[in-house]
Model the fold of this input.
Amino acid sequence: MKKTKRKKKTHVPFRMNMMFFVVFLLFSILIFRLGIVQIVQGEDYQRKIERTEDVTVNASVPRGKIFDRNVQVVVDNVPQNAITYTRKKGASQEEMLKTAEKLAKLIDKETDQVTERDKKDFWILKNEEKAKEKITDKEWQKAQENEISSKELYQMQIDRITEKDLKTLTEEDLEVLAIYREFTSGYAMTPQVVKNKNVTEEEYAIVSENLASLPGVNTTTDWDRSYAYDNTLKTVLGNISSSREGLPKEMVDFYLSRDYSRNDRVGKSYIEYQYEEVLRGQKTKVKNLTDKSGNVLDSQVVREGQRGNDLVLTIDMDLQLAVEKIIEEELGKAKSRGGHPLLDRIFVTMMDPNTGEILALAGKQYEVKNGKAEMNDFALGNLTTSYTMGSVVKGATVLTGYMTGAIHPGESLVDQPLKFAGSGGKSKSSWFNRGGAMSISDTYALMRSSNVYMMKTAMRIGGAKYRPNGPLKISPDTLPTMRRYFGQFGLGVRTGIDLPNEQIGFQGELTQPGLALDFSIGQFDTYTPLQLAQYVSTIANGGYRMEPHIVKEIRQPIAENGKLGPVVEEIKPEVLNRIDATPAQVKRVQQGFRMVMQSSQGTAQKYFRGAPYNPAGKTGTAEGLYDGPQREKYIERGQEVPMTWNVTLVGYAPHDNPEVAFSVVVPWAYQRGANSASINNIVGRKALDKYFELKAERAQEEKSDVVIEKDIRAKDEADNKEDTDNQ
Amino acid sequence: MTSPNKNSSRIDYGLILILLMMFITSCIAIYSAQTTGQYDSNFVLKQVLYYMVGIGIILVVVRFDSEQLMGMAWYLYGLGIVLLMLLIVSPPSIAPRINGAKSWFQLPGLSLQPSEFIKVFLILTLARVLIVHHQKNPVKTIRSDMWLLIKLGLVTLFPLLLVMQQPDLGTSLVFLSILLGMIFVSGITWKILLPLFSSAAALTAGIFYMVLWHPLLLEKYLGVKQYQFGRIYSWLDPYTYESSTGFHLTRSLLAIGSGQTMGKGFGYREVYLPESHTDFIFSIIGEEYGFIGASIVVSLFFLLVYHITKLALGTKVPYYTYMCAGVIAMITFHAFQNIGMTIGLLPITGIPLPFISYGGSSLMGNMFAISLIFSMTFNERQYMFSSDR
Done:
């Protein structure tokens, strides 16, 4: 026993010591490795932690302003107080919720944007314990064994939240939620508007004071569009989306690929939409240096932002307003006079026939809402609605006759009621000549608006000869041919205006060749008021179809209010095409148009007699089944849809050197006795008068400006003289 | 009751001092770790509580002398096996699967990891097997040594298999290291040990080779799970697997490395590391107290091992010597593996840092082991006084 013990003693201490040595070795390795990691590589690791991330953030800038041709502000930006939240990268839910709770105590926030789902998420966030109880023990067990994913578990909780549960959310909770929602919806590091509408001075002040305890929250200035002329032209100016709406859904990809963010405000319609690229401006690009946990270490402005470029419109706001006033007056008068039950709109387009610049684009719609009559802006109707225009197109018919060689300038044709076989004894005749037969010239035909002259022209184009009561043998090509020629004037084709959603009108659906006769007097296809303006401009300027445009210049923004920056781009007049007619042929039609307004037998002379500006033009009356907004009512009631008269007028002035062309369209103006049509002519006359009146006024102003300047100079000179005298 | 005067010489003040330093380190590190806010509990308070319980364990265990401990060994071993088997048959409500391993009892107000205690039971049992063997075979032969080896192996095998199926690789490795340590000091001839150790080393190397170059074969023939390979891959090349299995290692390296020589100071951490209050507590220490602090903690463990080795060399009771060897092996493996994995020296396994990491079962298991060391001084001196003088 003793021997073994001694033997043991010989090996055990040795082995123990050896074991201790191994332990020593192992721990030495640890220390050695620690030395490598902490001392040798320590700095590298430290640098790795400090390695910053660059986060580039785009800050929005205000949109460009919109001016009229006389540099009066039409659309401006007004600053408004805003409270924003900038989410730190990697900010936790709790942090954001805490901040939201604090902020909710300071400001009022409407809760109508909060969705059911938001409430549920919020309820779970607030009632963790109760939310856990929504899951049975069995399900928890399954979750622990990974049979149910945490996502499914959460969905189960969401599904099991009852109305009653949600009712436990107080008003204050909902306000917190509404704010929290805004917090989470933005991009990291990009300021997200929490509230920008109706931020009171008090709210603004109290939030500003407490910024230190509200991480991420800031008080700043947002901007909003303001319209100097309220609803005037609003439909044409278009809308922009709110920051909540952000990018329009159908165009998200388009915009995102162009450096927009989802909550950017963009033009949704018309000018704001069409000129988005110009108006949007250049965002401020800020490069933020952050550490790994998202704290901003440094901010650098990479690119200074710039407010969007300004637009100068071709519109003369004074003229626009005046024309709108004329429309409102006449529309109001007609409605109160009675006898115009279906009349509800009047359009006037005025443009410079030499450049295509739209001077006024006025349209009003009379609507009765809740028993109250309203005149709503419908300027847009000038290019988005079309009507049968009647005789105003006769200038195009005559010129088509010339261009096809069917008739020659000065050619006379017999005006007589036209009767064809199979027309059931009905005849087609001119207003001024219901019975007899008279030989008339082209200009006379225009002056008195002969239907028969136009129809016979169309028949000639189609190779048909008139035999009383005989069949109408006309080439089926006639209608397409005439349409093609009308297109040269802009009738039935895109005018090319710089606005989206332009309509081109409808072509008559029937295809009988004889309908070319109706077409020739404007009773078949429909055209927009803008097309009429382009058409009459083409005649006025000697045959050039000008592209109409509503933006004149793009200007760089400058800080000074009410002043324009340097021109970025000038929209130059563009000739879309020249009609095939010779200048002499166009002159002939111009002659006819002048006679309409200035000869004693002209259809519009009654209204334009004595006008000092040498006007020319063409009246029009189109008869047709009512196709306006109330048509459905008639059909519903089983009543016959009534026949109505659209009355129109196109014109320009002065005749020899036109500077303004216009179209007036009054759809569904009358139901009987349209030969006494006056509203179109009255509106046209007043509009033209106004144009020249404004022109005279401005000339006067300029003159007096010059005079004042001269006076000042004279006075300065006198002062200088005095000074020198004194010396 | 023994008089305080008499008692004082029986108390191992050196060990108490080391433990006290461990305790302080633990509290500071856990306090710092829980500022990450991953969990809501106050772990420091709980850890203090566990230390109290641990002191209670010590106070009880010191009452037993070597004979009594030897007598209890098999019963405790049996209890451990029963607990492990109970774990297998227990329903998930009592023994849930946590992080994929079924190794915990979770009863209301108490959660227990039996394997932490079984480590100590295994030490006691292996020591007893050694003593009994040496008594029965006073003359050492290669044959008797072989037989001893088989007995030790078998005793270890049962708990090892039971723990491996949980599956808990870390604890299995602890069992193996305890076995290895005790075989080492058992006096088994080098003629057996040398081939045994070298073949074990060769096997390990072979497995690594297979994992790295022929993983599919291993999966096919050994049924090893893919995630266990992942640990090895991410250990060797953590940055490639940074977003998945390499996450902990890269973060830990970042934390410890950036602590540099002097550390960042208490509470000044920059690297977020999940679970840093338990297995990755050393990362906190490394980051906040740098190379100096980390080295002190390593030294503390070394001091502990030194202290136990000294006691083992001084004792006249062979059972104590073997016990010490087992405890040394256990603590060393724990410390080396845990610290090693945080600095990329070893693959990541779920092993806590003894006395420092937060965790009731782990701490109580270790305190139980330490209580054995306390009981040595407490009982041996008494024996020395009564017999030798």
Summary: Residues 281-314 of chain B form the longest helix (34 residues). Chain B has 14 helices and two strands.
